[in-house]
Design brief:
The protein folds into two domains: about 80 residues, Chemotaxis receptor methyltransferase CheR, N-terminal domain (Chemotaxis Receptor Methyltransferase Cher, domain 1), CATH 1.10.155; about 180 residues, Vaccinia Virus protein VP39 (Rossmann fold, 3-Layer(aba) Sandwich), CATH 3.40.50.150. The chain is about 40% helix and about 20% strand. By secondary structure, it is α/β, with parallel strands linked by helices. The N and C termini lie far apart (about 70 Å). Strands 6-2-1-7-8-10-9 form a seven-stranded mixed sheet, with helices on one face. Bound molecules: S-adenosylmethionine. The site of S-adenosylmethionine (SAM) has 24 residues, from loops.
Length: about 280
Amino acid sequence: MFSSEVGVRTGQVQSMREFSFSVREFERARKLIHRLAGISMSDMKQDMMYGRLVRCLRAKGLKSFEEYLDLVEADRGRERQAFINALTTNLTSFFREPHHFPMLAEHARSRAGAGAYRVWCAASSTGEEPYSIAITLAEALPAARVEIVASDVDTQVLETARRGVYAEARVRELAPDRLRRFFQPAGQGMLQVRPELSTRIDFKRINLLDADWGLRGQFDAIFCRNVMIYFDKSTQRRIIERFRPLLRPEGLLICGHSESLQNHADLFRSLGRTTYAPVLRPA
Ligand SMILES: C[S@@+](CC[C@H](N)C(=O)[O-])C[C@H]1O[C@@H](n2cnc3c(N)ncnc32)[C@H](O)[C@@H]1O
């Protein structure tokens, strides 16, 4: 049996773990995920990190964290991506923070007739958020062209999002008419998002840390919810600065419940409830 570790900060890892995970190895892994995905992990996350990475060691048949971290550092592809996938936190749900969706609907209606309505969902996780956006826009703008880019750094959650198949329990909160219109039975207690929604969404891997996001044109709304909390202040600032030119002057930036932009008032002004508009500079 493997028990969890006691006294992780002493540098003496007292554990009955399958693999030793020293403070030095924790520091190394912590620096690596910060460099690769911007994710800051506090001292308290050593147990969590062990729990998530140990599966990668087992899968590769490795004998130590040192060996594993050497592999991840040397690799530019699969192992590196698997390391990132293991350390992201992907909690999400349909219509999470529901107050944002009527605001989106109202904004979309006010822009009707102004060409395609474009949304970037910048940390889309397993898809519930971009599908909630697509449902809202299908109802608000039934005849309009809607384009949604849904991105995440984690390739595994993107696969789930692309598939669009969810357990009935996950969609239970949706109103019955929405369920009927936007989902079809997929067997074994699962429901699949209908093409009416999925064809409006372009799923792609984007690391918010990357110098080039590969996005074209401007968006009417950017959803960047519950991901900034994992970044340090300077990373947050760099990303927020880059959102501004990607938003139309009348666009919306929608953040998560604990992500205030009050320190970036030179770039975005609050519209209430973690929704922001770009500050327009005089011409
Ligand atoms: C807690 S989930 C939030 C999902 C959704 N936005 C919501 O509010 O329900 C955070 C997501 O951010 C993604 N993420 C973390 N670091 C990222 C980065 N550097 N670039 C893009 N996505 C990132 C994670 O993979 C994860 O799916």
